[in-house]
Amino acid sequence: MSVTIKSEHEIELMREAGRILSIVHDEMAKVIRPGVTTMAINRKGEEVIRSYGCIPSFLNYNGYPASICVSVNEEVVHGIPDKKRILKEGDIVSLDAGVIYKGYHSDAARTHAVGEISEEDKKLIDVTKQSFFEGVKMARAGNHLFDISKAIQDYAESFGFSVVREMVGHGIGKKLHEEPQVPNFKPIGRGMKLRPGMTLAIEPMINRGKKEIWKLEDDWTCVTRDSQNSAHYENTVLITEGEPELFSYNKDLA
Ligand code: MF3
Ligand code: CO
After folding, report:
1. Are 203 and 109 in contact (CB under 8 A)?
2. Measured on CA atoms in the order 136, 137, 142, 147, is the torsion positive or negative?
3. What average pLDDT values come out for the chain (254 residues) when binned by 10 residues?
4. What backbone phi and psi angles, to 5 degrees, belong to 76?
5. pLDDT number for residue 148
6. What is the reported pTM?
7. Measuring from atom 11 of ligand 1, which residue has the nearest CA?
8. What is the DSSP letter of 53?
9. Which of 42, 96, 116, 186 could crosslink 69 through cysteines, CB 3.0-4.6 Å?
């Protein structure tokens, strides 16, 4: 399937899917503290998603066994919630969630501090979030896809951090993953021209140390090879003629 251009009606549904997801993230952020389990965060996220009549899109996606991806410290993405995994002071935790509202998807991720964290990890979280916003500045009609990728990479690497290569952002709509792929590093060429009505999940995954990752035996959890911490930040974004619209972001919420 190729890139889909959303109609005004589809955009309205995706806007609502994103609005709900921003609330889901805000509610999950409120339960994060030392002593809470990663499963408790998953339960909270799923409860809020269902309270809005939405479906958690990750649950059973390619066999994924939970509603929320909860990735701690050196875990990059796709950490599986566990009732025995207890967050402790000084951890950082990345939460990735997706909802389906009336057949349309939104997808967003945030990385949070658990209690007091190191200055280096604060920097990692802030730079990862800002790298997303640097990419978003380029996300407008007439620019090319890899303008977004380059802006993310240049920003993150200017702090000495590294960009994960194995996983990328993506188009989103009736399906969680649509074309095009949205790398967080610049491939050769410019990528496709951006057009109004395209909807993209832009999602930098940034490591403090080296870019290499591997997958644990659970076949989901991705961790950094050098065991240094990693952060993730994502929103579902609409390309317009002017300013992009961030469906899953509300500046007053988490
Ligand atoms: N946000 C991620 C993505 O875009 C999470 C999906 S993986 C899942 O690929 F299996 F957990 F759904
Ligand atoms: Co995504």
Report:
1. yes
2. negative
3. 94 98 98 98 98 98 98 98 98 99 98 98 98 98 98 98 98 98 98 98 99 98 98 98 97 90
4. -85, -55
5. 98
6. 0.98
7. 58
8. T
9. 96
Residue-level pLDDT at 63: 98
Q: Which helix (H) or strand (E) holds 21?
A: helix 8-31
56 forms bridges with which residues in the sheet? 99
DSSP state of 142: T
DSSP string for residues in 69-110: EEEETTEEE-PPP-TT-B--TT-EEEEEEEEEETTEEEEEEE
Tally Cβ neighbours within 10 Å of residue 41: 26
CA 16 to chain centroid: 18
Q: Whose alpha carbon is nearest atom 12 of ligand 1? A: 58
- Residues touching ligand 1 (Cβ under 6 Å) are 58, 61-62, 64, 69, 78, 96, 107, 170, 201
Instruction: Name residues with Cβ closer than 5 Å to ligand 2, which is an ion.
Output: 107, 201, 203
Q: Is residue 114 a contact partner of residue 214, using CB atoms and an 8 Å limit?
A: no
* Residue whose entry in the numeric block shows the structure tokens 């066999």: 63
- The predicted structure's pLDDT at residue 1: 73
